[in-house]
Design a protein that fits this description.
Layout: H1 2-45, E1 46-51, H2 53-63, H3 72-81, E2 83-87, E3 91-98, E4 104-110, E5 114-120, E6 139-140, E7 143-147, E8 161-162, H4 175-193
């Protein structure tokens, strides 16, 4: 009798463990897809710029807060010319959390210089993909994220995407709460689209 009980208990533990493992793998696959999609979106639609500091300082002196030799229009044009642009070459994902509106907040770093985040709360009815929003007026570490004049449709090299494969609980968030709130919100929004 004892042997049969131990075998039954072992089978139950294996079934529960296997189900938990499969659920975790499914969650990690979803996060991997989100990261890949977001990295490609950034790669195709945005770029970074910083300013050539000596040149921009010279332009500011010439403008002198409107009292210098440059008009406002000339000042803006010359300041735009001091921008040094760089393409997005690397995206590193650093953290996942649930925002106040129960959306998934994804933190990332671009080219090791620009840290930002985006909230995933809406799925496009046309494409079935997440809609991303970025505040492109923020200056972070001397860099600004700016939308490209012409978007492309290329895939970012896989080795240039640094995935966060730690899952939901990588920064002390309760995995079940984060997952439950995000999936309920996501499923509700998805059902509205269909």
């Amino acid at each position: 009798m004892e042997k049969k009980t131990l075998i039954a208990l072992g089978i139950i533990i294996l079934v529960i463990g296997g189900a938990w493992y499969m659920k975790r793998e499914k969650d990690l696959a979803k996060l991997h897809d989100i990261q890949t999609d977001l990295a490609n979106y950034l790669y195709n639609n945005y770029r970074l710029y910083t300013r050539n500091t000596p040149e921009s300082d010279e332009v500011k002196k010439l403008y002198n807060k409107g009292n210098g030799s440059l008009s406002e229009e000339e000042y803006l044009k010359k300041m735009k010319e001091t921008r040094v642009y760089s393409d997005i070459e690397k995206v590193e994902f650093t953290k996942f959390s649930v925002g106040p509106m129960k959306d998934l907040v994804v933190d990332f770093k671009i080219n090791d210089v620009y840290s930002d985040d985006t909230s995933l709360s809406t799925i496009s009815a046309e494409t079935g993909k997440w809609l991303y929003s970025f505040n492109s007026i923020n200056t972070r570490n001397g860099y600004v994220l700016e939308r490209k004049e012409k978007s492309t449709d290329k895939k970012m090299a896989e080795e240039k995407i640094i995935y966060n494969n730690k899952g939901w609980n990588n920064y002390g968030y309760d995995r079940k709460i984060v997952q439950k709130n995000w999936l309920i919100t996501t499923n509700y929004r998805t059902s509205l689209i269909k």
